[in-house]
Amino acid sequence: MPEMTLIEAIRQAMDEELARDDCVFITGEDVGPRGGVFRATQGLYEKYGPRRIIDSPLAELSIVGIGIGAALYGMRPICEVQFADFIFPAFNQILNEAARMFYRSGGEWQVPMVVRAPYGGGVGGGLYHSQSVEAFFAHIPGLKVVIPSNPKDAKGLLKSAVRDPNPVMFFEPKKGYRLIKGEVPEGEYTVPIGPANVSREGTDLTVFAYGIMHYYCLQAAEMAAKDGISVEVVDLRTLLPVDKATILSSVKKTGKALIVHEDNLTGGYGGEVAAIIAGEAFTDLDAPVKRLGGPDVPAVPFSHPLQDWFMPNPEKIARAIRELAAY
Amino acid sequence: MPTKIIMPQLGESVVEGTVSKWLKNEGEAVKEFEPIMEVTTDKVDTEVTATSGGLLLKILIPDGTTVTAGTLLGWIGQPGEAIPAEAGGSPTHAPAAHTPSPPPPQTPVARELGFISPVVAKLAAEHNVDLQQVKGTGASGRITKKDVLAYVAAKPPEGLRSALEQSGAGKPSGGSEELAPWEKPGDGDLFRPPELQMAAQAAPVSVPSVPAIPSSGDTFLPLTNIRKSIAEHMVRSKHTSPHVTTVFEVDMSKVAAHREANKAQFARDGVNLTFTAYFVAASASALKAFPMVNSSFADDKIVLKRDVNIGVAVSLGEEGLIVPVIKQADEKSLLGLARAVNDLANRARAKQLKPDEVQGGTFTITNHGVSGSLFATPIINQPQCAILGVGMIQKRVVVTSGDAIAIRPMCYISLTFDHRILDGALADYFVAKVKEALEGWG
User: Does the interface ipTM go beyond 0.90?
Assistant: First the structure.
């Protein structure tokens, strides 16, 4: 199996879907000849031409609005929002149109659209290029919310997202674009939207994470293993609909849960996981459910030392693991 | 002095029972030996009778509650009589599922246990662990899930036995009076659950469930107690014993002739002479000849059973099946066996079996031939060593010893045995003995 980076896997997924289905097209800022600011669409304009790889104005509302309209006409748009930080002008389109179209039309109209957006900090991007936005969208019934943590899943999940009849929010950990490498199976495959993945088996406690934090959690679990702590790591992969069964069966096994995300803690997605565990696995708990997230400040700071202070990293996660294991 | 009503131990592996229905209300008069409540367990449903006459003074455990054997359920006494205060509805009688065992009286000062997490409370209740005995290794000496699991793994039988003793301790702590023997849950091997008799395999085997993907129009049937019990037992048996099945063919000519000749005579004694009686008789004599088949595998030893108690599986239709036991089958005549088979089967179908009639079996016969099956590979009824399957008796063309072709009533019998105890040769000798007894009948 060839090894590739996260972004190569994402590009390959789009390339294969463009080739497979003429209805698939990409629109977004700089996705055309420039190949996207992260080069996610590099080479696709040359291959598929300006009618399928469409540069958009600097207007996210219109990128998503065009996507919704095209999807209603049977197209399969992939809308790229250059940074998740910029998605909010399109929020109304996603919440009030895309998410509820199927519901509102009694099942007559579907919006098979993918919105891709790089999210997260750690790249020195400052306040407007570092945000985690998943919690806003995981709150919206009618959407699917997917965050891959490795190249294999990224490719398989993105292909599933393109083929899904529902609007899918596909958030990509930008810090992992070239940092996270992994083997990707050759040939056609998809990874289903929904199931979480137990990426490391353990017995003492479970760490739940997604995206770049999952990558860090595996490193933290390795560090904790040196102290004799057996950590199970669950990669949620899909936040909406979330895989309750895997969450609960892991907690039943280990009795302790740590949830890690870089989004700030209050109202973050970890609260949802904690509530599922408290509500449905209460009698299996051997310790309070613990969350590790970014501090409740308005945004990821620009200063590098302050950015480090904001971001969970393997050391911080390992510390939380040790505290929970000692409880 | 009022009399206690105690949850009886309704079977060797039954440590709890559900009060399904009180037949009397508080204040109502009861006669001695009159049924006062119905009890359900995963093995049998039965009634509890009053051990003395008077009034039903107090109901402590309401309908629908499951409690451990030995729990005080209520009081019978004379009008106006007071119930001993210290025993009335104290938390020691709360449902088993929620109560960690109370600290034993000999511990004068209970240590401060600190925070008990939900899973620790649950495990302690499930395994009847007295948390005072568990060493805590968590923060500030808190008892962790691992601590309880390590404790349970270290000493399962003691834990459960002391819990049984303590749950018998529905005794008023102030009173000097000891519980009468019949009020205590049974002790000793006979009353130890088979799970514990097979301590090496004691880890509970959960019934693995393949995730069911419901499609529209599917119906969900809730599991009945008997279904759950069968499912659990079958999975455990398959996990416990390496099953091997050996098959013999038996010429039933002589048995058929004997039955034909004696049917009317038996009928005059009120007994329906079935083929099953012959299979029980033949098995009993073969078990006497090969006592290794009449045994159980326990940890580090094989237990040869003194009594030959043969269970006969009785189908209850869709509901399930039950295995009443003919005790000391080797000491009964064919008439006695036939009568016992009739009686147990009838009462099994009418659900009137007494708890001790479905336990203590040392060998089992399943007559699957009644539903047309030729031969089968039955699952061992734990903790027994073997089970005999009896196929349909069918006329077949056979070659006799004189090289003639004849038509004979033939029957396949199969023995599934525990390969930990028996090897193929001995198992075959046993089945050959059964065959010999049947073919040489008369």
Answer: no
